[in-house]
Design a protein that fits this description.
The protein has a two-stranded antiparallel ribbon. Helix 3 packs across helix 4. Helix content is about 65%, strand content about 10%. The termini are far apart. By secondary structure, it is mostly helical.
């Protein structure tokens, strides 16, 4: 999956709802080392209901590699997901 991101010929890649230039995505994927991969897999392990595992993994790796403290926001993301799953969305969405 990471090699696909590095070698892709698309000009941009959508990650976490934002479009990023190819070079930024490639740079992030090349920064991934064992600790980044372990942190990302740990986050995924504590997340339920992932619809598209590949996209989620790439987003998690991208954020971990860029130091966005993905781990600190994991609980908030999980809570938002649980509310949407259990109650059909926030504020009647």
């Amino acid at each position: 999956m990471m090699v696909r991101q590095i070698c892709s010929r698309k000009k941009t890649e959508r990650i976490c709802g934002e479009d990023f230039p190819r070079e930024i995505v490639k740079s992030a994927m090349l920064k991934v080392d064992v600790s980044v991969l372990q942190n990302a897999l740990e986050q995924i392990r504590h997340t339920d209901g992932v619809q598209n595992f590949e996209r989620y993994l790439i987003s998690t790796l991208f954020n971990e590699a860029n130091g966005k403290r993905f781990k600190e926001n994991a609980t908030d993301r999980w809570a938002d997901y649980a509310v949407k799953r259990d109650f059909g969305g926030l504020y009647g969405d």
